[in-house]
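G., the chain you wanted modeled:
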Amino acid sequence: MNNIAIIPARGGSKRIPRKNIKFFLGEPIITYSIQAALKSNLFNVVMVSTDDPEIARVAKECGAEVPFFRSKKNSNDFATLADTVKEVVNIYHEKKVQFDNICCILPTAPFLNPSSIIKSFEKFNTYDYDSMFPVLEFSYPIQRSLKFEKNYIEMTFKEHLNTRSQDLDKRYHDAGQYYWVKTKAFLKDQKFFLKKSGAIVISELEAQDIDTETDWQLAEIKYKMIHNDKQDNF
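Predicted structure as tokens:
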């Protein structure tokens, strides 16, 4: 199969300036996503979509391709992930290069490893999904979540006030690492969450949201803890 890994990394991150190439334990954070894609050996092309020359330079040094720069239209705060991927696919189509599958890998996913990408791709093909991505189980049942109504706290789902946690169905959320999608299905609906979407469940040790400086510091602590444990087991 002809697969492409697209890593979107614009230069205008707001909450954490220069987030996509900020050093994470000694390496630009985008390095982890690029290396995971390359080491999986699943892709004909591993490319970074960026509007930023410095990010392009770092990406190339890490082994990715940057065959063209992202348009200004898709580099602002309102452009979606789907907009960026669509632009990349269309440019390749203009060059007479087509791909069966796309894997959109986020540039700030240092916990991502090649085995996760491989495992999800195998399931993606086995069950003939249109898209596939990793998910995490919510650590606490969302059916027992609370909300504020003016100055008072109350149950979001009042019917579960007395339901035991162990009797509630598990719920999951997007891990925010990568999205496999069939190119034809993506171009038709222009989104990653499709009618025939599948998922693999990963542990909370395999993912971390990094939206603030505090998140960043926690992610580094968590990463060192995991990898020190692995070394201790040898």
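The chain has a mean pLDDT of 95.

Shout if anything looks off.
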